[in-house]
Amino acid sequence: MTADLLTVPEAMAVLKVSRWTLYNLIRSGEITSILVGTRCRRIPSSVLDAYVTRLCEEAA
């Protein structure tokens, strides 16, 4: 299985949020990320899709 892994700036662009906001979402557990090596953080695109879907369902 291959997932599209986004960098932090790419994920920021998808959600149209600041770096600070994205890292707060990661810290809170609302968005999960993985570390590649010791410094490269990646966010699976499917996680962002699920996050947006969850927000839309909560707003309805």
UniProtKB/TrEMBL annotation:
Pfam families: HTH_17 (PF12728). Residues 5-54 form the Helix-turn-helix domain. InterPro entries: HTH_17, SinI_DNA-bd. GO terms for molecular function: DNA binding. It comes from the Bacteria. This is Helix-turn-helix domain-containing protein. It comes from Nonomuraea rhodomycinica.
